[in-house]
Fold this sequence. Notes:
Layout: H1 2-9, E1 61-63, E2 84-88, H2 95-111, E3 114-117, H3 126-136, E4 143-146, H4 151-163, E5 167-171, E6 184-187, H5 190-204, E7 208-214, H6 220-233, E8 238-245, H7 251-264, E9 270-273, H8 276-288, E10 295-300, H9 303-310, E11 316-319, H10 322-337, E12 345-347, E13 351-354, H11 359-362, E14 403-405, E15 426-430, H12 437-453, E16 456-459, H13 468-478, E17 485-488, H14 493-505, E18 509-513, E19 526-529, H15 532-546, E20 550-556, H16 562-575, E21 580-587, H17 593-606, E22 612-615, H18 618-630, E23 637-642, H19 645-652, E24 658-661, H20 664-679, E25 687-689, E26 693-696, H21 701-704
Parallel strand pairs: 2-3, 2-4, 4-5, 5-6, 6-12, 7-8, 7-9, 9-10, 10-11, 15-16, 15-17, 17-18, 18-19, 19-25, 20-21, 20-22, 22-23, 23-24
Antiparallel strand pairs: 1-12, 11-13, 14-25, 24-26
Amino acid sequence: MRKLLSILLAIAFILSACTTPATQAPPVSTTAPAAATEPPAAPTQAEAPAGEYVLPEGAVSIMPLEAGSQSTAPVAYKPGAPVRIAYMPPATEFNYYMAIGEGIKTKAAELGVETFMLAPQSGSDIATQMKMLQDVTTQGVDAIILSTHDENAAAPLVKQAIDKGIAVVIVNSDIASFPTPVNAVVGYGQRKGTKNLGEYAAKMVNGKANVGVLEGLPGYHSTERIGGFLDAFKNYPDMKIIATLPTEWNVETGNKAMMDMIQAHPEINLVVAANDYIAIGAAKAAEALGRKDILIFGNDGDTTGLEDIAAGRWTATQNTTPFVMGKVALMVAMDVLNGKFPGGWVETPSITTDKNNVLSFLCHPEELYPKPSKEYACPEGGAAPTTTEAPTSEYVLPEGAVSIVPLEAGSQSTAPVAYKPGAPVRIAYMPPATEFNYYMAIGEGIKTKAAELGVETFMLAPQSGSDIATQMKMLQDVTTQGVDAIILSTHDENAAAPLVKQAIDKGIAVVIVNSDIASFPTPVNAVVGYGQRKGTKNLGEYAAKMVNGKANVGVLEGLPGYHSTERIGGFLDAFKNYPDMKIIATLPTEWNVETGNKAMMDMIQAHPEINLVVAANDYIAIGAAKAAEALGRKDILIFGNDGDTTGLEDIAAGRWTATQNTTPFVMGKVALMVAMDVLNGKFPGGWVETPSITTDKNNVLSFLCHPEELYPKPSMVYTCP
Length: 721
């Protein structure tokens, strides 16, 4: 699991395909690949089911292409013969595409495959790329890995290649409807990635900025990337778009456009760019104009851009790990040639990266092209004078964390803690109940990291998750037990708020865990957890696409409160985009298997037309699956949220469909480290995000084969795929 999470953080940061068949397919996620079984060799792509396909190492998920976009034409290559593959990026001027090429070359060398590159020098030289694409079909290639800035110009030439039996894999894209059928698409979710970065940017400025937009050349890539930023800003009325200018994707035109824009609109204080080269040019212009106050956001993960961010020249990028993408593209091309690929878009990692986590990439030069200009040490920790004086951008995230975002105004405690650095530490972990193995897994993470650091921890919790009164009594009592910090998770934030305030007033640090609540009802020192609504929205999108956007949906809530509202809200947010995802019935539960089972029984008996159920946690989903089985309704697709061991084993066994795996063991370790940083005056305040990974039968073994990261341990030994 540690290796798995290093993909999330160091080469893959803890996120728009279209219709899918109504059979179980691999999910949108943020994790390394796996599958329950080795895929059988398939005579044609059309016959190879996606649910049995083992994703290449480093890939995140697989999604079908839109109807009519998936080529089912036979390839001329005969398995076992030597392989020759052309890599055709839009230009050699972009190191980003050279990094993809290095990934292709590295994996090809491992597999003994011949590859070569053909590309014009300039990204605006579409005509030369089209001539090269036309010519390459006469050069004895078995496959083409193509990225282009003009999909419509390339389409007829791609069709010619496909008609000749040459496999075509589109790389650095998530286009689900290429203008002509292709064999595969490989790349990160472009709009999704920049939407995440746009949300981060908006929160940095409390939702208020004068925004400049620097586009790339017209086409799908620029539309999607800039569209993601704009989608994020729609939620913030005071994120005002002041001006938009085009560029040719490079440093020079980015510099000129920024110069023109800032001179014409000096009120601009935040700029978004369609790639890192534009952002690099924009940063140079801002510096030349004496406007280092302008926040600049890019998209790519270019080495120069990463070094600029580390040096504080500009703000953040959506790092799309191009070296990894290249390796994945080569493996997908080989799977197409060998008849193993089921068709679709293979998603690769996309990670919001700023000064806070950029060293996690720069310290791995073997994954970058070109190599960094100097050697960077991988981070082990960081220091700042006090929680109020330490800027977020200088804080080094704990191992396993994904990002840090400020809390809403008035929600961040700035009260002093009583603990004196260097003294022994005593921390209470207070989950809502012991009945949930999920919270025990968080506790195991806390205990493991505490043992490493020599910190005393203990747990206090009622047995039942519905026993709010007992948890409140324990929270009141614990402040008299000589604790330095409390790591708290509760099902009733409003009931807990006055007791949390009492603890804070006594100088006890309070860290809220398993949450992303940016506005706890009283100020707290830190929040640690995954993005709840974001996670279930991803899972909801996956669920809707599995059923071609048409299902009769049952909803199983948890106890009323923030957690249930956010998790169910994420599913419902996703379903809003699909008019035929009909919500038939909604029932409450008490978060556990028993009430999940009863609610599912009642719901299905009252509404037998329901064929898809979403649940606020895995325990509810486990109970729902038992009810579905008892009713002879194994046809119902069931989706949960947690990453509970029993739930993961159920998914591996095919008992229910998928969960949003929130890696609770990792969350516990991160929570303990954040609590220590608060006590030692190193924490800048905020919500520390932990990983959330859509998990189904396709990648569940990547978790089950690491029992040291699970609680309880799985019931059997699972082999890593």
